[in-house]
Amino acid sequence: MSLKTALLAGACALLPSLAIAEMMVDDPYARAAGAMARSGAAFMQITNTGDADDRLVAAASDVAERVELHTHIMDGDVMRMVEVEEGFAVTAGETIALERGGMHVMFLGLTRVLEQGDEIEVTLTFEEAGEMTVTIPVDNERMPAETGHGMQHGHGHDG
Predict the structure, then answer these.
(1) Is residue 34 part of a domain?
(2) Which of 40, 44, 83, 135 is most enclosed, with most CB atoms within 10 A?
(3) For residue 112, what are the domain limits?
Protein backbone atom coordinates (compact mmCIF):
# COMPACT_ATOMS: atom_id res chain seq x y z
CA MET A 1 0.00 0.00 0.00
CA SER A 2 1.39 3.40 -0.95
CA LEU A 3 1.74 6.20 1.56
CA LYS A 4 -0.95 8.16 -0.32
CA THR A 5 -3.39 5.21 -0.09
CA ALA A 6 -2.58 4.72 3.59
CA LEU A 7 -3.20 8.39 4.34
CA LEU A 8 -6.48 8.35 2.42
CA ALA A 9 -7.60 5.20 4.24
CA GLY A 10 -6.69 6.80 7.57
CA ALA A 11 -8.59 9.99 6.73
CA CYS A 12 -11.66 7.97 5.72
CA ALA A 13 -11.46 5.99 8.97
CA LEU A 14 -11.70 9.28 10.89
CA LEU A 15 -14.84 10.47 9.11
CA PRO A 16 -17.34 8.52 11.24
CA SER A 17 -15.82 10.03 14.38
CA LEU A 18 -16.41 13.61 13.23
CA ALA A 19 -19.31 15.43 14.86
CA ILE A 20 -22.36 14.57 12.78
CA ALA A 21 -25.96 15.43 13.57
CA GLU A 22 -28.21 12.38 13.49
CA MET A 23 -31.95 12.79 13.83
CA MET A 24 -34.57 10.40 15.18
CA VAL A 25 -38.33 11.03 15.00
CA ASP A 26 -40.71 9.54 17.57
CA ASP A 27 -44.50 9.52 17.97
CA PRO A 28 -45.40 11.46 14.80
CA TYR A 29 -49.00 12.21 13.93
CA ALA A 30 -50.85 14.60 11.65
CA ARG A 31 -54.31 16.05 11.77
CA ALA A 32 -56.59 18.39 9.88
CA ALA A 33 -57.90 21.53 11.55
CA GLY A 34 -61.45 20.19 10.95
CA ALA A 35 -63.48 17.93 8.67
CA MET A 36 -63.55 20.38 5.72
CA ALA A 37 -60.32 22.17 6.65
CA ARG A 38 -57.86 23.63 4.17
CA SER A 39 -55.07 23.35 6.74
CA GLY A 40 -53.54 20.76 9.00
CA ALA A 41 -50.43 20.10 11.01
CA ALA A 42 -47.93 17.43 12.00
CA PHE A 43 -46.49 16.87 15.45
CA MET A 44 -43.62 14.68 16.69
CA GLN A 45 -40.60 14.41 18.93
CA ILE A 46 -37.25 15.00 17.18
CA THR A 47 -34.09 13.80 18.94
CA ASN A 48 -30.59 14.73 17.83
CA THR A 49 -28.62 11.59 18.69
CA GLY A 50 -25.44 13.01 17.15
CA ASP A 51 -22.61 15.08 18.53
CA ALA A 52 -23.33 18.28 16.58
CA ASP A 53 -26.09 20.84 16.99
CA ASP A 54 -28.46 21.06 14.03
CA ARG A 55 -31.55 22.93 12.91
CA LEU A 56 -34.79 21.82 11.25
CA VAL A 57 -35.02 24.39 8.45
CA ALA A 58 -37.83 23.13 6.20
CA ALA A 59 -40.52 20.54 5.64
CA ALA A 60 -42.24 19.39 2.46
CA SER A 61 -45.21 17.17 1.58
CA ASP A 62 -47.53 16.64 -1.36
CA VAL A 63 -50.57 16.94 0.94
CA ALA A 64 -50.43 20.74 0.90
CA GLU A 65 -49.71 23.64 -1.42
CA ARG A 66 -47.36 25.07 1.24
CA VAL A 67 -45.63 23.45 4.19
CA GLU A 68 -44.15 25.74 6.83
CA LEU A 69 -42.56 25.53 10.26
CA HIS A 70 -44.81 27.32 12.76
CA THR A 71 -45.09 28.13 16.42
CA HIS A 72 -47.55 29.97 18.64
CA ILE A 73 -46.80 33.31 20.29
CA MET A 74 -48.78 35.54 22.61
CA ASP A 75 -49.80 38.79 20.90
CA GLY A 76 -51.34 40.79 23.73
CA ASP A 77 -54.15 38.55 24.99
CA VAL A 78 -54.37 36.47 21.81
CA MET A 79 -52.41 33.37 20.87
CA ARG A 80 -51.21 33.71 17.24
CA MET A 81 -49.60 31.20 14.95
CA VAL A 82 -46.51 32.44 13.09
CA GLU A 83 -44.04 30.99 10.61
CA VAL A 84 -40.54 30.41 11.99
CA GLU A 85 -38.41 31.04 8.91
CA GLU A 86 -35.13 30.29 10.69
CA GLY A 87 -36.43 26.86 11.74
CA PHE A 88 -36.06 25.03 15.03
CA ALA A 89 -32.74 24.37 16.77
CA VAL A 90 -32.12 20.74 17.70
CA THR A 91 -29.18 20.68 20.10
CA ALA A 92 -26.90 17.63 20.15
CA GLY A 93 -28.22 15.03 22.57
CA GLU A 94 -31.54 16.86 23.04
CA THR A 95 -35.16 16.29 22.01
CA ILE A 96 -37.56 18.97 20.81
CA ALA A 97 -41.32 18.54 20.87
CA LEU A 98 -43.41 19.62 17.90
CA GLU A 99 -46.79 19.76 19.61
CA ARG A 100 -50.17 21.42 19.52
CA GLY A 101 -49.99 24.92 20.93
CA GLY A 102 -46.24 25.08 20.22
CA MET A 103 -43.80 24.33 17.42
CA HIS A 104 -45.26 22.26 14.57
CA VAL A 105 -45.22 21.53 10.84
CA MET A 106 -48.10 23.44 9.20
CA PHE A 107 -49.90 22.30 6.04
CA LEU A 108 -51.53 25.20 4.19
CA GLY A 109 -53.88 24.59 1.26
CA LEU A 110 -54.46 20.88 1.72
CA THR A 111 -54.48 19.03 -1.59
CA ARG A 112 -56.53 16.19 -0.13
CA VAL A 113 -58.56 15.36 2.96
CA LEU A 114 -56.50 14.10 5.90
CA GLU A 115 -58.68 11.14 6.85
CA GLN A 116 -58.39 9.22 10.10
CA GLY A 117 -56.00 6.28 9.66
CA ASP A 118 -54.33 7.59 6.47
CA GLU A 119 -50.57 7.98 6.27
CA ILE A 120 -48.73 10.91 4.73
CA GLU A 121 -45.10 11.40 3.74
CA VAL A 122 -43.28 14.47 5.08
CA THR A 123 -39.68 15.31 4.22
CA LEU A 124 -37.87 17.16 6.99
CA THR A 125 -34.75 19.12 6.01
CA PHE A 126 -31.99 19.74 8.54
CA GLU A 127 -29.01 22.06 8.03
CA GLU A 128 -26.46 19.36 8.83
CA ALA A 129 -28.27 16.00 8.74
CA GLY A 130 -29.93 16.75 5.38
CA GLU A 131 -33.29 15.36 4.33
CA MET A 132 -35.26 12.74 6.21
CA THR A 133 -38.60 11.40 4.95
CA VAL A 134 -41.04 10.35 7.66
CA THR A 135 -44.29 8.40 7.23
CA ILE A 136 -46.82 10.03 9.54
CA PRO A 137 -50.19 8.54 10.51
CA VAL A 138 -53.24 10.82 10.44
CA ASP A 139 -54.92 10.86 13.85
CA ASN A 140 -57.72 13.44 13.91
CA GLU A 141 -59.06 12.00 17.17
CA ARG A 142 -55.89 12.42 19.22
CA MET A 143 -56.26 14.87 22.05
CA PRO A 144 -53.47 17.31 22.94
CA ALA A 145 -51.21 16.33 25.81
CA GLU A 146 -52.17 17.85 29.13
CA THR A 147 -50.02 20.97 29.48
CA GLY A 148 -51.84 22.72 32.28
CA HIS A 149 -52.63 25.68 29.99
CA GLY A 150 -56.19 24.69 29.16
CA MET A 151 -57.69 25.14 25.72
CA GLN A 152 -55.94 27.29 23.13
CA HIS A 153 -58.17 29.96 21.58
CA GLY A 154 -57.87 32.93 19.31
CA HIS A 155 -55.47 31.68 16.64
CA GLY A 156 -58.00 30.42 14.11
CA HIS A 157 -56.25 27.11 13.46
CA ASP A 158 -56.04 23.92 15.48
CA GLY A 159 -52.35 23.47 14.88
Answers:
(1) yes
(2) 40
(3) 17-137
Q: Is residue 80 part of a domain?
A: yes
Asked if residue 85 belongs to a domain, the reply is yes
Say what the pTM is.
Answer: 0.78
Please write the tens of the pLDDT for every residue from 29-87.
999 988 788 999 999 999 999 999 999 999 999 999 999 999 988 889 988 889 999 99
* CATH code of the domain covering residue 45: 2.60.40.1890
The Cα 37–Cα 55 span in angstroms is 29
CB 23 within 8 A of CB 47: yes
